[in-house]
Design brief:
By secondary structure, this protein is an alpha/beta fold. It has 20 helices and 9 strands. Strands 5-4-3-2-1-9-8-7-6 form a 9-stranded parallel sheet. The longest helix is centred in the C-terminal third of the chain and has 24 residues.
Length: 494
């Protein structure tokens, strides 16, 4: 068997020859709070503490296209992330943050086009050339239908929006990662590690094919694709999973899409430690879980990493818990010594066997999905959702019957008497945010708003790319909800 080396096809041992010897992974921390101002302060604090990239959590109304003052948003504003309803909110979110220097990741899907438009216009107002912008929008709508549920439009209309964004950035925002194809949420929904890989890459195949069908060259847009994986509790299993992911994607891009550009063959991915593994009981145990999971991601060759805070099973992370989570990454990077080796587990009998098993088993599932007609068909007929549900049920059964142990939950249990200092939602800040939004809607140029929305409606009815007009709507201070409502009228809801 020919010896594989880091930085060489099929990149199982790493996408770069030296991996972390010259530069460590990007350390991100995921944050988003009740108001743009509060989130901005957390971002500034994280940057001060050594974070290299920002990762934004948006609240549920923002994710599904409702303004904060909409009746459907009642009770959900600012609960799981920052509410962004209008350009002014994005301006406040990035106050005093140099967008030309920072990499920004936005976990947003159905409304990805709108949030990216707000970000682009915010950069324009700061005098930043959009060609300098670096970051990622998740923009992975397919996994929403099977794993998360924050979709708005039917699959085909959603795919058009995804492809329009990819095409626009291809020409105008060249350093932006136009999609982060997420296995993370698939795993959080209850899939196995093999299913996480297979379903993620099946979705990725659909995105690549759609882009090709719209005239884009995978050799050129391929380097701007990125992935997002979960790092779960199985230490060796997760290392092998990440190694197999690189091999899978390189072979898929080469054999299925005839890609020859080496950079387009690379599976570049962000990793987040397992949110579903955090326990509300004995939350200090979560620090240990997160450390093990972070080590798996690093030893598996991730390009960026978010470590969950210990209190996230209870609430949005407190400042102290977020800092400890960041310090976990910094200690691994600066004190463990593992960054001195490109692929420390390369050649391990266990790791190599696990890696090959992951590759073969994931390919078999992808073949099954191909036989169904591809990922969209497998979503529409319920195949993917049913498979995830079956796996989630089996895992829960194993926990309840103590075939799998969770320390503090089904073994070594004790009453947790420690006082938890958790992040609380300030309802007064929500009221201020909503009232300010209502006031802005009155004071803006509403004739310009109506005109911009009318043009968007006309464009959306054609095959024309909607991104330029969504950006014009952002400049006119149309709200996220207003833009979403226009698209709802044209595309329908799912």
């Amino acid at each position: 068997m020919k010896k594989e080396t880091p930085g060489k096809f099929p990149y199982k041992r790493g996408i770069y020859g030296d991996m972390y010897k010259e530069r460590t992974w990007t350390m991100r921390q995921y944050a988003g709070f009740t108001s743009s101002e509060e989130s901005n302060q957390r971002f500034l604090k994280l940057l001060e503490n050594g974070v290299m990239g920002l990762s934004i959590a948006f609240d549920l109304p923002t994710q599904i296209g409702y303004d904060s003052d909409h009746p459907m948003a009642n009770g959900e504003v600012g609960k799981v992330g920052v509410p962004i309803s209008i350009l002014d909110d994005m301006d406040r979110l990035f106050k005093d943050i140099p967008l030309e220097d920072v990499s920004t990741s936005m976990t947003i899907n159905a409304t990805a086009s709108i949030l990216l438009a707000f970000y682009i216009v915010t950069a324009e107002k700061k005098g930043v050339n959009v060609k300098q912008l670096k970051g990622t929008v998740q923009n992975d709508i397919l996994k929403e239908y099977s794993s998360r549920g924050t979709y708005i439009f039917p699959p085909k209309a959603s795919m058009k929006l995804v492809t329009d964004l990819m095409s626009f950035c291809y020409d105008n925002v060249p350093n932006w990662n136009t999609i982060s194809i997420s296995g993370y949420h698939i795993r959080e929904a209850g899939s196995t590690a093999v299913q996480e890989l297979a379903f993620t890459f099946a979705n990725a195949i659909e995105y690549v094919q759609s882009a090709i069908d719209h005239g884009l060259d995978p050799n050129k847009f391929g380097p701007r694709l990125s992935f997002f994986f979960n790092s779960h509790n199985g230490f060796l299993e997760e290392i092998a999973k990440f190694r197999a992911a690189r091999k899978l994607w390189a072979i898929i891009m080469r054999d299925r899409f005839s890609v020859t550009n080496e950079k387009a063959l690379l599976c570049r991915f962000h990793t987040q430690t397992g949110g579903s593994t955090l326990t509300a009981n004995q939350i200090d145990n979560n620090v240990v879980r997160t450390t093990i999971q972070a080590l798996s991601a690093v030893l598996g060759g991730t390009q960026s990493l978010h470590t969950n805070s210990k209190d996230e099973a209870l609430a949005l992370p407190s400042e102290d818990a977020a800092e400890l989570a960041l310090r976990t990454q910094q200690i691994i990077a600066l004190e463990s010594g593992i960054t001195s080796y490109s692929d420390p587990f390369g050649g391990s009998y266990v790791i190599e066997e696990l890696t090959e098993n992951f590759y073969k088993e994931a390919m078999l599932i992808i073949d099954e999905i191909d036989a169904i007609g591809g990922s969209i068909a497998a979503i529409e007929n319920g195949y993917i959702e049913n498979e995830i549900t079956r796996s989630a049920y089996e895992y829960q059964r194993q926990v309840e019957e103590k075939e799998n142990f969770v320390v503090g939950v089904n073994i070594h249990e004790k009453e947790d008497l420690s006082e938890q200092h958790i992040q609380n939602i300030d309802s007064k800040k929500i009221d201020i945010h909503i009232n300010r939004l209502k006031d802005l809607k009155k004071k803006r140029n509403n004739l310009e708003v109506k005109s911009s929305l009318a043009i968007l409606k006309t464009v959306a009815k054609t095959d024309e790319n909607v991104m330029p007009q969504i950006i014009n709507c952002a400049r006119s201070r149309c709200t996220l909800g207003e833009i979403s409502d226009v698209l709802r009228k044209v595309y329908g809801e799912y």
